[in-house]
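User: My collaborator sent over this chain with a note saying "see what the structure looks like." That's all I know about it. Can you take a look?
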Amino acid sequence: MGGAAVTLGVQSRRWPVMTDTPEPVKPIHLGQSSALPASPEDAVLDYVPNPRPGKPYLVRFTAPEFTSLCPVTGQPDFAHLVIDYAPAATIVESKSLKLFLGAFRNHAAFHEDCTVGIGERLFAEMQPLWLRIGGYWYPRGGIPIDVFWQSGEPPAGLWLPAQDVPGYRGRG
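Assistant: Without extra context I'll predict from the sequence alone. Here is the result:
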């Protein structure tokens, strides 16, 4: 990607024209009919230029109905995922993220592998300033498992709201 200036979106009095941002790559999923990838490895994540480069802000995605398969029994596992990141040059396009997460539906892996693997892939490809993921897994075998990963210390001055996913309490 070159350093040529590009214009993003519509020029208006309220929002300035963006310059010195990476050249856009046409997303392959946005506005297109896209099938669910066969596996997370087959999923293609789209990244688009950050519309507010140089401005520290937080992006949050929640996936309250995330599913994968237990690698031992093949039974479904369910989680509530919360992904927070501070963008640098790019942001992840939400439809491609949805397809990537959906690709885990038939993927057999332990909770720790799914949660940390999602965070590591997003961090490696998007290269945000900072990223964290919380995987709040529902009980299997009577034990809920919560898995957390982050790329390092968050940028100074970044507002970090709590993930606010309550711990599993059962029926008690």
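A starting point for your reply to your collaborator: The CA atoms of residues 32 and 139 lie 36 Å apart.
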